[in-house]
Structures are given as structure tokens and as C-alpha cells.
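Exercise 7. Predict the joint structure of the components listed below.
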Amino acid sequence: MQIPQTTSPTHFIRQIISNDLSTNKNNSNVATRFPPEPNGYLHIGHAKSICLNFGTALENNGTCNLRFDDTNPEKESIEYMESIKRDVAWLGFEWTELRHASDYFEQLYQYAVELIQKGLAYVDSLSAEDIRLYRGTLTQAGKESPDRNRSITENLDLFARMRAGEFADGQYVLRAKIDMASPNMNMRDPAIYRIRSVHHQRTGDAWCIYPMYDYTHCISDAIENITHSLCTLEFADHRPLYDWVLEQLQTPCHPQQIEFARLQLEYTIVSKRKLNQLVTEKHVSGWDDPRMPTIAGLRRAGFTSQSIKDFCERIGITKQNSWIEMGVLEYCIREDLNVNAFRAMAVLEPLRVVITNYPKDKIENLEISNHPQREELGKRIVPFSKTILIENDDFSENPPAKYKRLSVGEEVRLRGSYVICCDEVIKNADGEIIELHCSYDENTLGKNPEGRKAKGVIHWVDEASSHAAEIRLYDRLFTVPQPDNEENFLDVVNPNSLQILNSCRVEASLKEATLEHRYQFERTGYFCLDSDSTSEKLVFNRTVTLRDSKE
RNA sequence: UCCCGAGUGGUGUAGUGGUAGCACAGCAGACUUUGACUCUGUUAGUAUAAGUUCGAUUCUUAUUUCGGGUGCCA
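Solution:
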């Protein structure tokens, strides 16, 4: 007997947590958070983090907050916050609480005062340039700022006046007093507050000093009683600072920061700066362009949230930097859509076929299953008459070996309909094929012809009852697996990443297509209705092709 | 070699001091009213060198390769 494997594979973070649970660490609570900065749209890499954080909470009956890391008002906006909430919700996760680092600005300030009082922070008047010079290099220790031993009283006064807006941007900065000789640059008296007289999207003009990430993140985690603070590898060097801050202060708890490798997906980029550039320079139509690796783009392309979650589970969680092949993502969406997408027929590049021996005005309303393996999904009506359209590609005058489509003198099955034989090719004055004359075998509806076998099965639509449609064929946005390695990633944008087909014809039933449904256009791929679609003009996006094993 | 991290088939990821498993990709075949799906079979791997051990992919050391680190970004 086979026991179905339903448990997810383990990974090192699951092991750490199950170990913590077994020792009753954190009173056996599990609290995580997803902490995006609202300075761009969420992308597939964020999806990995979202699935990890929310998933970890779900698996352990814990909590997971959505917390906006909004400490840099110059780059952040409400629009991005809204898009992030929408995308997390679309993925199917519910945050326990919605928080903002800016909710803690007053507490953060008071903790900073506490640091100053303990002689662990000081106000520095060095310029940004000088601070950089004083910091030293990777191989050389830094040297201390002349202001490092400013008195506590003076520091307190200056910090209060920084808050009060008495100084210009950049005139002073609050620094943690740690160790200018540390081999870890993050510990060389990092800045924890800077003066920035800018309007904040949530706190308005209440503040002109804003806390830095390292200082803010650990305290925010502690305030929210986070148990496991999961972040990407590049923050590993910051962990000593994360721990240092919490060790100096009387915070509610001391969360454990654990780092994992960020997602690297071939043929995509996830740098917010570059993604932004693609949008602003109009290489794509927007953040939700189906070629974008953003959640919004994937959604518009027709990806399901389930397929993305499945993908995130499959790629695993480790500390190894690795590249995921596009084939994995494609497999995940095909696996979902194969089971759940309704089947339909669409002809992308039509070729007219007249069935010479079919009655002139006859129309047969054929009933065809919506899914070959799932009868419960019902049937649809597909009209059939004397003049139909087939895919231009599905006919060849000089068929190669093993050709399974139509050619002169050969028979093919029209999917869900009759077997036809091509008798004659009609060409125009330029010698281009404009029409095919075929004959049908009336005894082949729902049964095989006797004594012979059709070469293959092709899709079709009835010309009169079909609808015009625009079909957008999307392909990978870049021509190389690692566009980030290029001198200029714009040089390797795939010029053929979008092909718009305007003379497509889709079967009558597709008139009722909805944004929520996914479709498999038989033999051509998986598609979804695009939001640009109108009742006059249907627009479909190709999510992914079908697997293709023909050589 | 200033600090930190990581090396398991083509890719990703498990595992144990005792025959290295799974998935994707690939290849071959079966089935097929989708060249889809499904099914079957199959190719291919522990970075290198020493050491400990009856036995090392696992433990130790060295080497090597790759990634990250010098924002008043996150």
C-alpha cells in the first residue's frame, strides 16, 4: 500500500522552528512578518519570501504580519502600498495585522534617546563624505569621528533639536557607538538617524528625522513579538548589528534573524530599479505587463496564485545562491492549468476550408467536452458548417516525415467533429494558398473511419459563428538567462517578447469568456482574457505554450 | 587572501558514519479525437587533497571555486 506524500519537504528553517518548538522556545509561539519597502511592485522573488513567512506561520498555527518598512519617504508611496496589499491578498494570504515601521517612529525615537543616555549613540557633524572616509575599507580599520566622545547631555540636546527641525538635511546624523575597527563594516558606528525634511506618506510632516533600516527593523520585529525574522542572505552581515541594538535596549523580546537565499530566476530581473526603468522607458506597458516578473504581471499573464505558491514550495529554501530554470515555473502553471482550464478552440492564423460535400446551409451544433478528463466540467456547443477555418500551420503542401496534420490527399480529424480529406488547394495570383477544398466523411462523427486512420487531429472554428479576437503571444523578456550580468540589461531585451495577432478567430463559446477563467486553446497553449478586452474586440493573453514534443 | 556565507546529476533540492533519493529538464517507448495529458523505462551527481575510521557525501584540516559586505538605501 502506498501512503500519499502530503507533507512538504523540510528545509533548514523548518528544522530550526521545529527544534525551537520542541524546546518550548518563545513559549512555542511562531510569529513572522513580511516586511516590504513600499517603493515598487512585488515580484516573484517577493513571492518566495511571502510564501515562506506566511507559510511558516500557517504551518505552525502562528501569526504573520504585513509590515511596511516605510522609513525612506523619498522613495515610497501609497500606490505601492496598495499594490502590495492587493498582491499578497491575491496570493491567498491573510496577514494577522497590518503594521508600518512608521507606526513606531515615536518609540524608535525614545529608544534612540535611551541609547544616547547609555553612551551608546552620538550625534555626528561629519559630512556624509567624511563619514565614508573615516569608515576605512574592507581591509583597513576606520577611525573615530571627532564627535564620538561628545557628552551625553550635548548629544541629547542635539538629537532633540534634530527632531525639532533646527538643522538642515545632512547637517547631523545620529550614530551608534560600536567599533570603528570592526571587520564587519556594519558595526563601524552605523548611522541610525538622518535628517530628511520631507513629507512622509503616512506621518505627514510630523518628522524631519527618519530612522535607518538596521535600527528600525530589529526594533519593529521586537515590538511585534516576532519570533523568527526571516530575511535574505545579504542581511547576514547585518545580523550582528540587529543583535547589538536589541541587546542594548529593553525591548519586548529578541527575535532570531535567519537568512535564506533570494530567488534568482533565469531570463528575468528582479531589481526594482531595473523593473522601474522598464516601465518608465516603456519597454513594457506597465508594472502589470504580462512579461514582467511582478505578481501583477504574472496575474495578468494568467498565472494562478496556486501555481506560484507551488513554485515557491518546489524551489526550496536554502542558503545557497542558485538559479532556477524557467522550466520549473512553466511546469507549475501547466500542471495547474492542465487540470483546471476549460478547453476551447481558437485559430490564430486562419486558413479557410470549404467542405465541398457538406450541405450548403446546414449548421450542426456539436457538443464538445470542456475538459477531456473531467466530465463534470460539462460540455459546450460548437457550431459546425460548410466553411470553417483551420490553422495555417496545420496544412502543408510538402509535409515532412511524421507529419500529423493536413496535406493533399490525406485525412485528419477535426477535433470533436468529422474526419476530412484535403482534395484541392486554391491559390491566388501570387501563388499563395488562400483556401482548401476538402470533403468530409459523414460517418466519422464520434467514431473512427473504417479500415483507415486519420493522420492526426487539428483544431478549427466555424467561420460564420466564430468571433474575431486579438491574441497576444508573450515570450521571455530577455534573450539571455542572466540579463543582470550584461553591461546593459536593455541590450538583451527580447525584441520578440510580444507578438500581437490581430486576425484570430475564436469559437463562439469564447464570447462568454471571463477574466476569472483560464482556457486551453487546444494544441496552442493556455490563455486568459485580458482586461483590455471589450465586447467588440476580445483580447486574450497567452500564459504559456503547451509542451511540445515534436522535433 | 579583511569579514561572513555556500559548494550533491544539466538545473533545483533531500538524506544518512554503512548501496546517494525526489523534482524539473533530457533521451527512449506506450497510449492518445490536443504532437497536450497520462504511463513506463532511462542517461547523469557528493568541488579538490589529506586525515580520523573497518567504512566519510556526512566528522577534522588545508586548498579551491562562487556569492555577499566600504549608503545619511532597504
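Discussion. The longest strand of chain A covers residues 419-427.
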